[in-house]
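FORM 7B: Structural annotation worksheet

SECTION A. Query
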Amino acid sequence: MEAIASQRIAEGFSIGVRNARGAHWRGEGGAQERGLASQYRAWAQRFAFDYPYVSSVLEGIATSYNHEAEWHDSDARNRKLLSVARS
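SECTION B. Predicted structure
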């Protein structure tokens, strides 16, 4: 991937990573996604010097998981507010 540095290959890789997660059960909020973001960010940092393009792709995946975590956190807060309002 580093030698080619193709955006299309990077997008395909990112999609493959997310699809490989498969079906999963979730708790409340985005803790799972924050854990995955941390893992991919650590890999990005580990490869940054030798494989900067691959590192940027991994950082993009980490950023994506962080955004998803924020969405799940917001969704959890909204559900709590709605359940209190219904009570």
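SECTION C. Observations
The chain has a mean pLDDT of 94. Residues 52-86 form the longest helix (35 residues).

SECTION D. Sign-off
Analyst initials: ____
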